[in-house]
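User: Last request for today: this protein with magnesium ion, please.
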Amino acid sequence: MTVEGTPPVTGTDAASAVRDLFLLEVGHEPAGRWSAPGRVNLIGEHTDYNDGFVLPFAIPHRTHVQLGTRADGRIRVVSTFDEAPVEVPLDELDELFPGGRENVPTWSAYPLGVAWALLRAAGRAARTVPGVDIAIASNVPVGAGLSSSAAIESATAVALNDAWGLGLDRVALARVGRTAENEAVGAPTGIMDQMASMLGRSDAAIFLDCRTLDATVVDVGFAAADLELLVLDTGVTHAHSTGGYRDRRASCERGAEVMGVPALRDLSIADLAAAEQRLDDVTFRRVRHIVTENQRVLDTVQTLRESGPRAIGGLLVASHASMRDDFEISVPELDVAVEAALEAGAVGARMTGGGFGGAAIALVDRARRERVAASVETAFAAAGFAAPHVFSVTPSAGAARD
Ligand code: ADP
Ligand code: MG
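Assistant: Here's the final one, the structure of the complex with magnesium ion:
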């Protein structure tokens, strides 16, 4: 089989779709074009809300934005996602968020929420900046665990930061994206996705300390080693994912409290023996996943630097086993995807994202990617699962003016 480099999402390329949309809705040339990517997480799962470490990278799939200014102090957003534009006076954003968000369509709370959070972060009153028209189109599949939400937030944030001359740096813009998602949209998420989307670099991952927000660019060396990362999207969305996420967070908080630390980040492998004495079996296994996963992120960074990407396979496989057995967030489709990829010679593979469905990733030799993809497809068919969607991603540049 042939593995796509980019999944077909809308059937049109987003960069040209956004141009058509802006022209149609606004009718003149825009002041500029910007774009920002989605992301995958190489390793470090459920560690973010435990103040721990993650290692995501930006992917080639991007959300494109075109922006023009207007004289009437209003903001209008339009997306290929939903034909109807949404228009609000800038000085009414404060009435909309967080309390009045149900007065606008949910999708529009992402870009409008970014405008609101950006003005607040910059300490600027709405009347001091010009109104804007913003058109949006995306190649990032929605809800596939590739963070289309961070892509739309980051693309809007860089565009408005430039158009309004606010001069915020990239970490500040990542925070703006998270504020928009948490307070304007009302989704309780960490900051990993926005940091990856803002800071991504070609052939590199972002090593992020979720407590301090210190971010380091780490070369992954996939290109020189002729390696690629395959996304094995199972297409499964599990009804338990929200409740499961809440339960796991609660277990982590309980574990930290019993162990007398602010967050599980403050425990190390050496503390696990004591934790096993003091915690019930389920809480202990949840804690063990977080503690060992944090260590695996640190080990992955060190291994990439010292030995290169072929040496991280065992860490990816151990991460999957920990999520399957200790954190218990895998599903049969994810386990089959990982096993079939490894059987076909993947360097390493693991489920990625929140769990209970979504995608796995597999690090593979470029020459072997078709074989790995075929192996996963065959295994899915044999197990009676719906066909997976397999595509490759390469670590790519973060948000930018195009
Ligand atoms: P993901 O895993 O893709 O980030 P989320 O539920 O966090 O899933 O975010 C998806 C939501 O973000 C969509 O339902 C929509 O409201 C919004 N969104 C993402 N991309 C776009 C877009 N191009 N245009 C409009 N809204 C978008
Ligand atoms: Mg999201």
